[in-house]
Amino acid sequence: TCNTACNGTVIDTARVKLIENSEQKDDSNLCIIYTDDNCRVFFTYRYSDAIYVTRKVDLNIMRKSECVKTINILYIVLGVIAGIVLGGLILLLIYKLVITIDDRRELAKFEQQGENMRWEMAENPIFESPTTKVINPTYEETAY
C-alpha cells in the first residue's frame, strides 16, 4: 500500500509524469496524499525494475488536485435562525390577515342584521304607563 511503500523515506525516482486523471495500471499502486490546505493529490507509483534492486520508482502524478472547501458553520447557523424567524413572521402575518378578514365579514354581517331589524312602536299589553291623568271634579278652572 501507499503508506507502507513510502513510509516517509526518500525513494529514488526513475521517471515522474504529470497526468490528467488518475489512470491506474495493473502493476501500479494508487495513492492519495493530503496537503496542509485540505487538498488531495492523487498519484500512482510502480517500481521501474521487476526485481526491486534499484528501488527506483515511476511516479504518475495527477495534474489537478482536489481541494475541499471549508464550510463556515456560523453562516449555516445564522441562516437557519433567520429562516425560522422569517417563517414565524410570515405565519403571524398570515394569521393576522385571516383574522382581519374574518372580523370584517362578521362586522358587515352584524351591521346588515341591524339594518334589517324593524322596530315597531307596538304597545305591550302588560305595560302600564307610569303617568296617570286624574280629573278633580271639585276643581274649577277659572280664567284670569
UniProtKB/TrEMBL annotation:
Q: What's one GO MF term for it?
A: integrin binding
Give the stretches traversing the membrane. Answer: 73-95
Q: Which GO terms describe its cellular component?
A: cell surface; focal adhesion; integrin complex
Question: Is Mitochondrion found in the keyword set?
Answer: no
One record GO biological process: cell adhesion mediated by integrin
Where in the numbering of this chain does the Integrin beta subunit cytoplasmic domain appear? 96-142
Q: Which domain of life is it from?
A: Eukaryota
Keyword list (alphabetical) reads: Disulfide bond, Glycoprotein, Integrin, Membrane, Transmembrane, Transmembrane helix
Name the InterPro entries on file: Integrin_bsu, Integrin_bsu_cyt_dom
The entry's protein name is Integrin beta cytoplasmic domain protein
